[in-house]
Amino acid sequence: MTTIKTAHILCVGTELLLGDIVNTNAAFLSQRLAQLGICVYKHTSVGDNPERLKAALSEALSDADLVITSGGLGPTYDDLTKETVAEAFGLELELDERSLGIIRSYFERTGRVMTKNNEKQAMMPRTAHVFDNHYGTAPALAVSSSDGQKTVIMLPGPPGELTRIFDEEVAPFLRERSDSVLVSKNIHIFGIGESAVEEKIKTIMTTSENPTVAPYCKEGEVRLRVTAKAHSEDAAARMCDGVIEQILGSEVGRFVYGIDCDTLERALVDKLHEHALTLCTAESLTGGLIAERVTSVAGCSDVFFGGCVTYTNEIKHALLGVSEDTLARCGAVSCETAMEMARGARERLGTDIAVSATGFAGPTGGTDQTPVGTVFIGVSTKYGEDFCKLTLSHMRSREYIRTVSASNALNMALLAVKKLTKS
């Protein structure tokens, strides 16, 4: 049995090229193949055109041991994936009675009338390994070249069918044909940019070939993906852990908020639970976004008491007790106001920690001294208060400024938990 090491994902359907649907199948297949230790060399999308499909298949077979296709297995005249693959391997199609029986049962079970053209979906190369489809009408299948060096797995296009067939039947098939696994762990970083992260751990990133370390950035955050290849998951995980320990011990370590913890809000809620602490929020420019992100985490009700959206000065004073003198002297967008907002929320809601946000999200507003993109985050605990000032570019969108402000507020709350617990 030939070991499969590399793969090319070939997605078929003119609707992909027109942008009518988003190609989620390629992302799903890449993730699953990585878990099986199979490296994906390339993604290709091609329309329902026989000549272009034939050329794309030929290129894919030249690239990799395995080609996985999605789409083009249906009953209509333009569903040509199976026919194109069979021609490339010199195989003729014949009716597979077992597949036909499953298709008929599906129509009966769903109360639909099966038309004659659906029999096309049961036409299979004699040498094919057929994967039953209990979620639709098109069976999936695998065929190999006569020398066993190349394999094509054909999956139906609908994601609800493809994902289930892959997990239930294709993954075990491929697991028998792969000699290694890939394990990835993610280091989540906030408060330092991607270029600065690379500068501080460049030696680790450039000298480690297995595991590899790859940086990814999103709004205000950096993620380091550490990936190891080994003969077992345990061995690969241990290899990842060794590199993660190096990174945590570097200058980057103090900016790490979690390992395989997908969001700041989840890391915060987990820490609040761990130490039996409570949180509330006071928001102006973020308009409840901080609270929304916290409450998106299941189980947050044990640690999150609530929040106040105080958009005007009058409401800041009436609900949170921000002094009129502070508002008049320092302005609504100031460190003094941010800290009084946090203090007022904590005292009124009776929590251990409160975090606040006030600023100019734009596109209008701001002054020469405090332009659009100026944001102050306040945090209050019974042991002390702190703030941070953000100077976000006025060229950024209003939504970006609000999102990054909320992320900074969550991070400030997380740092407050660490200070209170010394963890």
The CA-CA distance between the termini, in Å, is: 51 Å
Number of strands: 17
Give the fraction of residues assigned to helices: 40-55%
Q: Largest sheet, order of strands side by side? A: 2-1-3-8-7-6
SS content category: alpha/beta
Parts with pLDDT < 50 across at least 5 consecutive residues: none
Molecular shape:
elongated
Reported for the largest beta sheet, the result is: 6 strands, mixed
Features:
single chain; 423 residues; alpha/beta; 6-stranded mixed β-sheet; 5-stranded mixed β-sheet; 17 strands; 25% strand
Q: Can you walk me through this structure?
A:
By secondary structure, the protein is of the alpha/beta class. It is 40% helix and 25% strand. It has 14 helices and 17 strands. The chain has helices spanning 14-18, 24-35, 50-63, 81-88, 97-109, 159-175, 194-207, 233-248, 264-274, 289-295, 313-320, 324-330, 335-349, 398-421, and strands spanning 6-12, 39-46, 66-70, 93-95, 123-125, 129-131, 140-144, 151-155, 181-190, 212-218, 221-230, 256-259, 279-283, 304-309, 353-359, 374-381, 384-391. The strands form four sheets. Strands 2-1-3-8-7-6 form a six-stranded mixed β-sheet, sandwiched between helices. Strands 14-13-15-16-17 form a five-stranded mixed β-sheet, sandwiched between helices. Strands 10-11-9-12 form a four-stranded antiparallel β-sheet. Helix 2 packs parallel to helix 6, helix 9 packs parallel to helix 14 (398-421) and helix 10 (289-295) crosses helix 14. The protein is elongated and about 85 Å long. The mean pLDDT is 95.
